[in-house]
């Protein structure tokens, strides 16, 4: 019996995998090929920004939804990635010159931190590795001391404020509060804000989102993913089973930070500017809210939640500019009180069965195998369905 | 016979309160030792020290002759000490099989967990254990659907999957029906053939079922007496601490 169910489960898993792959391919075709040709460029740019935010939401889901660590400081890693790419774009100027804003502060020579960003490959590496290492370091210091729960959240937020103030104060290095503009910069001799370049960034965003989604799926599906869930549910038990949770948490936090870095870079070029305000507390909390709305620990929920909240914001702020914030507040209240598992959580635990019963299909029952095997129970069920 | 666990002059104090007080204890490899004692006797602290959760204030703990002071919990677990908690602690959001699979993983560092797959050996261990603990028909169910007794058995199975030399079992019969208690007792007895076990228990009926070897009685953080179940039961000091009066 257990063998049979094992095979059935494997088959079902395989079928689900094929269905999922089909859905992803269709979505990618729609998003990357069809959408750019039917909606205006400024809308496309908007969607590209939302998709890059969905990437950071995936990272948050990894660390919060699966590992149970609520980070309120992902703005740091998001900004690090954004600044890395913005610095590279600001350096696309004739040789011997330095970006304009340096003149404001009387800086004559390019600061050393800018030097590596002349090269595109190094920039791309840096926008993944710098946030990843920053997250890994913060994570190591925090997790080694067994800080978790609320204290972890507070610490990440404190770190966020430290970075925020630091970036604001560094006028001579990164233009302080004014931030770095990317729109008028050039990349491969094309203006960054031109339609063609923006469309390319949009397509890169779609592809990155899919690849990062698949990476997260891989991370969370095997033993490693189950261990993350185990750490979330009972860390002490994990420790007494011979695992050292610290290493796992540091790695996941670093990956999550690196993902935020990629998201930040893609968001920056599709926004046109990056300033330290990206590290405001409210923005990092909003990231968490997207995941909560979509459904923790589901990955797809993170993407869905981000798109829904952000599209809703855009639509509502266009139609009801004065009161759209109330709608947003109402949405969050509804999710917290009515849908604690988010939209995807509600769908898998309740909505799907409801839909099936509305369509007249039999609800799928989960019971103890011994109960299903019990001849009396089977007889009873047969009689019930005959009535 | 070699000693698997030796404890010498162990004192653990929390802000001056001595949870364990100059405790001396030793047990042989292959023994099934039952530890009893009234509430607050220091039984759980005793396990906490052996597993590295609490550091001794004084004295030392030798496992297979090695001092375990300052070794982190996960390393002690890898050295071969498995612990079952008082309330069943299994991973509720994972299936029964995955619960066992996680623990049976032989290489528990980050990268090999990330890239490795369960080898045949581990799969076989898990399959065998599912049968031993009687949960093979529920292998693919989420552990949250198990009854209390099944969770207790699953957790004991998880201990064994760790292939430890010493099993520490904290009140395995708490909250179980008579039938389930008997099942757990039989399971422990069969495990005792290949492991050293320390079981902490309150339920005297259960203690009588499993105590073939020595029984140790703790009282106020110190060793009160030690011996066969019959001897211990008739020891006037034991009756005093349990009933609060001296027998006439």
From TrEMBL, chain A:
The chain crosses the membrane at residues 21-40, 46-64, 76-93, 118-143, 150-167, 200-219, 247-267, 287-311, 323-347. InterPro entries: ABC_transp_permease, ABC_transptr_urea_perm_UrtC, LivM-like. It is found in: Cell membrane. GO terms for molecular function: branched-chain amino acid transmembrane transporter activity. Its main location: membrane. It comes from the Bacteria. It is a multi-pass membrane protein. Keywords: Cell membrane, Membrane, Transmembrane, Transmembrane helix. One of its GO terms (cellular component) is plasma membrane. Coiled coil: none annotated. PANTHER family: HIGH-AFFINITY BRANCHED-CHAIN AMINO ACID TRANSPORT SYSTEM PERMEASE, SLR1201 PROTEIN. This is Urea ABC transporter permease subunit UrtC.
């Amino acid at each position: 019996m257990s063998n049979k169910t094992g095979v059935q489960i494997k088959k079902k898993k395989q079928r689900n995998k094929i269905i999922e792959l089909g859905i992803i391919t269709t979505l990618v075709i729609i998003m990357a090929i069809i959408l750019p040709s039917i909606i205006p460029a400024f809308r496309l740019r908007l969607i590209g920004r939302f998709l890059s935010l969905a990437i950071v939401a995936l990272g948050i889901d990894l660390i919060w939804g699966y590992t149970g660590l609520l980070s309120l400081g992902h703005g740091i890693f998001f900004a690090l990635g954004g600044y890395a790419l913005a610095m590279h774009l600001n350096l696309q100027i004739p040789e011997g010159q330095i970006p304009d804003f340096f003149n404001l502060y009387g800086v004559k020579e390019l600061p050393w931190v800018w030097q590596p960003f002349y090269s595109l490959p190094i920039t791309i590496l840096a926008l993944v590795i710098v946030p990843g290492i920053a997250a890994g370091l913060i994570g190591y210091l925090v997790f080694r001391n067994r800080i978790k729960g609320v204290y972890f959240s507070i610490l990440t937020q404190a770190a966020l404020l430290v970075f925020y103030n630091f970036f604001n104060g560094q006028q001579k290095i990164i233009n302080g509060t004014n931030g770095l503009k990317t729109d008028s910069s050039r990349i491969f001799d094309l203006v960054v804000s031109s339609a063609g370049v923006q469309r390319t960034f949009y397509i890169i965003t779609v592809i990155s989102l899919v690849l990062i989604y698949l990476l997260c799926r891989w991370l969370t599906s095997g033993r490693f993913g189950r261990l993350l869930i185990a750490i979330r549910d009972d860390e002490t038990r994990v420790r007494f089973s011979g695992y050292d949770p610290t290493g796992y948490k540091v790695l996941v936090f670093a990956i999550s930070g690196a993902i935020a870095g990629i998201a930040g870079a893609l968001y920056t070029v599709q926004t046109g500017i990056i300033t330290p305000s990206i590290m405001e507390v409210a923005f990092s909390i909003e990231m968490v809210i997207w995941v909560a709305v979509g459904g923790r620990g589901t990955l797809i929920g993170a993407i869905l939640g981000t798109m829904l909240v952000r599209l809703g914001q855009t639509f509502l702020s266009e139609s009801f500019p004065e009161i759209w914030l109330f709608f947003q507040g109402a949405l969050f209240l509804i999710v917290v009180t009515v849908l604690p598992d988010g939209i995807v959580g509600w769908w898998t635990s309740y909505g799907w069965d409801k839909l099936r019963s509305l369509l007249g299909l039999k609800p799928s029952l989960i019971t103890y195998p011994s109960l299903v095997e019990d001849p009396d129970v089977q007889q009873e069920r047969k009689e019930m369905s005959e009535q | 016979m070699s000693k698997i666990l030796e404890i010498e002059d162990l004192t653990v104090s929390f802000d001056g309160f001595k949870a364990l007080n100059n405790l001396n204890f030793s047990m042989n490899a292959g023994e099934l030792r039952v530890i009893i004692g009234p509430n607050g006797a220091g039984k759980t602290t005793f396990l906490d020290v052996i597993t590295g959760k609490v550091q001794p204030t004084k004295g030392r703990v030798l496992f297979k002759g090695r001092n375990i002071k300052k070794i982190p919990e996960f390393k002690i677990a890898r050295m071969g000490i498995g612990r079952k908690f008082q309330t069943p602690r299994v991973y509720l959001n994972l299936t029964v099989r995955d619960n066992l699979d996680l623990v049976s993983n032989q290489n528990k560092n980050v990268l090999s967990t990330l890239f490795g797959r369960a080898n045949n050996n581990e799969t076989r261990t898990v399959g065998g254990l599912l049968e031993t603990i009687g949960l093979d028909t529920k292998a693919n169910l989420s552990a949250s659907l198990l009854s209390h007794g099944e969770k207790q058995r699953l957790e004991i199975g998880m201990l064994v999957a760790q292939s430890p030399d010493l099993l520490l079992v904290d009140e395995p019969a708490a909250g179980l029906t008579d039938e389930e208690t008997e099942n757990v007792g039989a399971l422990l007895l069969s495990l005792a053939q290949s492991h050293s076990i320390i079981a902490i228990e309150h339920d005297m009926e259960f203690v009588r079922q499993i105590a073939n070897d020595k029984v140790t009685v703790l009282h106020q953080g110190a060793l009160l007496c030690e011996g066969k179940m019959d001897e211990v039961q008739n020891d006037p000091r034991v009756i005093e601490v349990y009933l609060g009066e001296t027998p006439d």
